Amino acid sequence: MAAATFSLNYIAYKKHIKGLFMATYAIGDIQGCYRTFKKLLKKIDFHPGRDQLWLAGDLINRGPSSLKTLEYIYKYQDSIQCVLGNHDLHFLAIESGQHLSNKKDTFKKILLSPNRKKLVKWLKTQPLFYMDEQLEFAMVHAGVPADWSFRDAVDFSQEVSEAIQSKNSYRFFAQMYNNTPSKWKESLSGIKRLRFITNALTRMRYCFSDGSLELTCKVPPGEQPAELTPWFELPQNLNKGQLIFGHWASLMGQCPIPHYYALDTGCVWGRKLTALRLDDKTIFQCKNID
């Protein structure tokens, strides 16, 4: 039996070396750092059509090449699965006319692009939470509230997606920017319900002991006020499945929960862009060159 297992592993390895083995990779926050993104894709030997790529949100903004990044992802969308991050939603709010850009935003080239409409239409179809039951992995930009299952997160994400894709999406974007309500209740409705779901899945870092969101603290764990706990350390979160997330650059890829993978390693701040190969949990990194 041992010899047979070795033989099968060796065959799989040879197929991978020859470029015949499909792999699934997840990458953290790109934020428009296109040159670094392409360098990392070369490092992992990513081939659209053969491999699959998961992107954990914040595809654009702050980096110098948001348009190029979005156009690449759009071009190879059949091989790429994304979730939306807070910067992606910020862009959609600006594009809809419901919010003003600020000095740090790098959306101008997208807004002036002749491809603007098709890029925006596609971006709006991306979920806030994604789960692949066959791979036994899920992906979100920020995190999952302690009292939600992954299936709950899929369903609640869909509620926001329906609002984003509706003819009246401008109403959602007009009221998206707010930190309340801070605590989940199934009875929440309307914009309050949608806003909590959005904040939890795309902005959350710390929570109070009752699961209430605290959306202003960004320091690394250990430096936060005593009453705050990283969302992933709340007891109800410890026994959930495998989860990929980004958003929290100050974690620098370090998460104490073995089945949670933090992939935002501060690329846009001059640090590194990180990829995880889901098949064997191998980490790949490239230093920012943008």
Automatic annotation (TrEMBL):
- One Pfam family name from the record? Metallophos
**Keyword Hydrolase in record:** yes
Domain of life, per lineage:
Bacteria
> Locate the Calcineurin-like phosphoesterase domain: which residues?
25-184
- Name the Gene Ontology molecular function terms of this record: bis(5'-nucleosyl)-tetraphosphatase (symmetrical) activity
Q: Which InterPro entries match?
A: ApaH, Calcineurin-like_PHP, Metallo-depent_PP-like
Q: Name the EC number(s).
A: 3.6.1.41
Query: Which keywords has UniProt assigned to this entry?
Result: Hydrolase
Catalysed reactions listed for this entry: P(1),P(4)-bis(5'-adenosyl) tetraphosphate + H2O = 2 ADP + 2 H(+)
Q: What does this protein do?
A: Hydrolyzes diadenosine 5',5'''-P1,P4-tetraphosphate to yield ADP.
Entry similarity comment: Belongs to the Ap4A hydrolase family.
| Annotated protein name in UniProt | bis(5'-nucleosyl)-tetraphosphatase (symmetrical)
Q: What's the source species' lineage?
A: Bacteria, Pseudomonadati, Pseudomonadota, Gammaproteobacteria, Oceanospirillales
